[in-house]
From TrEMBL:
Protein name from the UniProt record: Crossover junction endodeoxyribonuclease RuvC
Assembly with partners or alone: Homodimer which binds Holliday junction (HJ) DNA. The HJ becomes 2-fold symmetrical on binding to RuvC with unstacked arms; it has a different conformation from HJ DNA in complex with RuvA. In the full resolvosome a probable DNA-RuvA(4)-RuvB(12)-RuvC(2) complex forms which resolves the HJ.
Family that this chain belongs to: Belongs to the RuvC family.
Organism: Jejuia spongiicola
Binding annotation for Mg(2+) 2: E71
Length: 184
């Protein structure tokens, strides 16, 4: 039996943050949990960011993940939406980095491709494939939770490959890899 590890997958959002956890034993993955943080009832953007940070810390402290896989924000039609998504992602990443957990970002197309073989798959197709792969009895009403789980499964599939996206093992690694983004 190989080394056991836990992967936390996060689909960041300021309306709903989806997350999923898998346990990897050797070359096998096992479903642990999927859920979401519903932020719709809050109008204060800064309060939403605080809640994302606190929930991510709570997940980390409860499940002790060895790695975090997070969906990278993508550019849609609305620049404001992308900015808010980027903030949500940054806050979730800061929570992981504050606990020294390596983080890897994946583009939505890469996650969909890893799960379904189609980078343009729908949320429903991704959810159904995860249901089959992990033996989930039911799917959640909102599919943001399965999107978080998909990020974790994508990371599992990409583990051991040479390039898995941008990886950070802590604040110093993040700063070193992003010197152009950090003021001195």
């Amino acid at each position: 039996m190989g080394k056991e590890r836990i992967i936390l997958g996060i689909d960041p959002g300021t309306t709903i943050m989806g997350f999923g956890l898998i346990k990897v034993v050797g070359k096998n993955m096992h479903f642990v949990q999927l859920n979401e943080l519903d932020l719709k009832k809050y109008s204060d953007h800064y309060l939403k960011l605080k809640l994302i940070f606190e929930r991510t810390i709570e997940l980390i402290d409860t499940h002790n993940p060895d790695e975090i896989a997070i969906e990278a924000p993508f550019f849609g039609k609305n620049v404001q939406s992308m900015l808010k998504l980027g903030r949500a992602q940054g806050v979730a990443m800061a929570a992981g980095l504050s606990r020294e957990i390596p983080i890897t970002e994946y583009l939505p197309k890469k996650i969909k491709m890893a799960i379904t073989g189609n980078g343009n798959a729908s949320k429903e197709q991704v959810a159904k494939m995860l249901q089959n792969l992990l033996g989930l009895k039911t799917l959640p009403k909102n599919l943001d939770a399965t999107d978080g789980l998909a990020a974790a499964v994508c990371h599992f599939y990409n583990s051991g490959k040479v390039t898995v996206g941008k990886s950070y093992s802590g604040w110093s690694a993040f700063v070193k890899q992003n010197e152009d983004r950090v003021k001195k």
